[in-house]
Amino acid sequence: MTDNSTAERDLQDQPPQLVPLNAIFATDFVQILVPVTTANTVREVAAAVAHHVEGKRVRALPHEKVVFHRGRRLPPEMTVAEAGIEPHDHVRVEYDLPKGTK
Amino acid sequence: MSLLRREEWQHFVRDVDWAFSYVDDEAVYPEWHSGTGKVPREAWLKWEEDYKVTYPEYVATQREKESAAYAVKAALQRSSSFDTLDEGWKSSTKMHFGGIALVEYAAMLGELKMARFGLNGAWRNMATFGQLDELRHSQITTFFGHEFVGKDPQYDWTQKTFHTNCWVPISLRNLFDGMMIAPNVVDLAIELPFTFETGFTNLQFVALSADALQSGDVNFANMISSIQTDEARHSQQGGPTLEILVEHDPVRAQWVIEKSFWGSARAFAALTGPAMDYYTPLEHRKQSYREFMEEWIIDQYIRTIQDYGLKKPWFWDEFMRGLDTWHHALHMGLWFWRPTIWWRPKAGVSKDEREWLREKYPNWEGVYGDKWDVIIDNINANNVEATLPETLPWLCNMCHLPACNPTQSRDGSWRVRDWSLKYDGKTHHFCTNACRQIWWKDRDNVNHETVIDRFLAGQIQPMDVSGILGYMGLTPDVMGDDPDYAAWTKDYVGRSATGLALAPAESEES
Q: Scanning B63, B199, B237, B386, which has the fewest C-beta atoms within 10 Å of its C-beta?
């Protein structure tokens, strides 16, 4: 426990680091470069990726967005550092479609 | 005294070789340039070209070809034919001039390497003619493109392209350095004359020539047809080299073919695909890119490699599936990142053009139609800004083209997948499974840094779109833009549209 809490404190004490991501938004046709920081939340990552695509190449839908990283759906409040997202990692942003929606 | 006939003397001179007495054979033909590998040195004595030519014959034929090509050019220079050409077609030619002129020069260096280090005198003779060919191609392409510089500064990229860090020439440099500059001559003969020239340049030079004639560009058709007649001759250096390599080291032969086939297929999808299926005016299209590929590559080339006792490449299914997607996605990428290129890409998605695309590619509407619809609706809502890039597309670490190849999921939807691998402390991303696998096998060979690598390493400053365009050498007078937005958006004016990005003024209000 002590080790974990020390590690968490160390993480919080550090200035935000740049984390360039390889990202894809939903059904878009191409992966793009999206820079975020270790302090950004997963919700902010979703918004940063969507900024380049939503309503520009993929029609915007009235649903929350979710981020997948290494096959795992990330909680929206988690930070990039907490999620273990590293520079050059791939993330996929999807609409959180209600069940049964295509 | 009458001259001897060619048949009476050529067999004495065509494969003249020397017995070295002061140096070892290895000193003259070092392995790293000559690349005999597992093939015994004496096996190369069997090397024989199918079509034999002498220097006097070569000069006479080339003189005739040059005179004909320049005569047509001189005649057309006085007409107004250039001014009547469609902007889309002009873009195809700008792409060709910039993308090819200095590649021909690099090919000359490759031929010179074979002319020096080829392991048989006949091969070295053929390569000597080959280097003269490539020099002519570089000159004729540069000269024909130069004529238009006064009319349109984008043609200046005929000569400029490979002197810039634009992502397109970086991708081509990566391919051609690997194919023409880095390899030993055995691999080079299989990559360049056999795979690229026998397999792929047919597509650019024969098929595009047909589209050029249809589009009324007699000058361009004349130029590339003149070039293609040379290709047909010097590309025959590949066959005899492959025959000998297959006999002694079939595994190496198979690998060299696979690597160069894949790289060529990716480059042609980017350059020839959009030119055929989008830039050439609808009424002038002879066949779709896929149809051309099927006729000129799939049937012909595969039959050829099977004749040599080799197998279809292991990535064949992935390549075949890509014929329906690669060039459509690359076209969309070239269009969306249009300020980063030296031609004016026309979108080519009016209702009639889409009907043609659906007929040729039954999945086109489901994979690309929805994205073009959002782009169209933004333009019709006077929000062109939403159709301009604010970041870079991720570029594949192998082919340097955008990672934009979707595959179909089990539920029927099309998604772009992540093909990545961690190596040497870094995550590398690839556009396809085959690019990843080829990179892994070839990772110690030539690997240029992609524009993404350069950007993230801080080599591009300032780190924004203006910095990127400056780094690539794109100035406002040459950077690409759609030549006629209305041509492909007017069919959709007035339809209701939801889910669009807000124009800057609207987002300030809201």
A: B63
